[in-house]
Specification:
The chain is of the alpha+beta class. It has a single domain, classed as Arc Repressor Mutant, subunit A (Orthogonal Bundle), CATH 1.10.10. The protein is 57% helix and 15% strand. Strands 1-2 form a two-stranded antiparallel ribbon. Strand 1 and strand 2 form a beta hairpin. Helix 1 packs across helix 2 and helix 2 packs across helix 3.
Length: 102
């Protein structure tokens, strides 16, 4: 199974949290809010492309809206392969945290 980076993990978790509102700008804004740091669109867009290429997420075009000048949003969702990768990463993180003496 392909390993995912911390940034990719954060993006995938944002997609899960946002549900049907998981599009590029919403993901970027959500991560900025959660991390309390400015997150650039590029730092979200590039990992989204990698995750889509790795079939961890699926992007589908939504309906066109007048607000967007008739352009369609690309809405992302997690695939079953992505869920497995997240679960494995959580298992590893939990095991490491359980062994850490803080």
């Amino acid at each position: 199974m392909k390993s995912i980076t911390r940034k990719e993990e954060m993006i995938m978790l944002a997609i899960m949290a946002l549900g049907s509102d998981a599009y590029l700008i919403a993901i970027q804004q959500y991560l900025s809010e959660i991390t309390q740091k400015k997150v650039s669109l590029t730092s979200v867009h590039l990992p989204l492309s990698r995750l889509e290429d790795a079939m961890m997420i699926l992007g589908k075009l939504g309906g066109a809206t007048a607000v967007r000048g008739g352009r369609r949003k690309k809405i992302y969702s997690i695939t079953s392969q992505g869920e497995v990768a997240l679960e494995e990463l959580k298992r590893i993180s939990d095991a490491l945290w359980n062994g850490a003496a803080i």
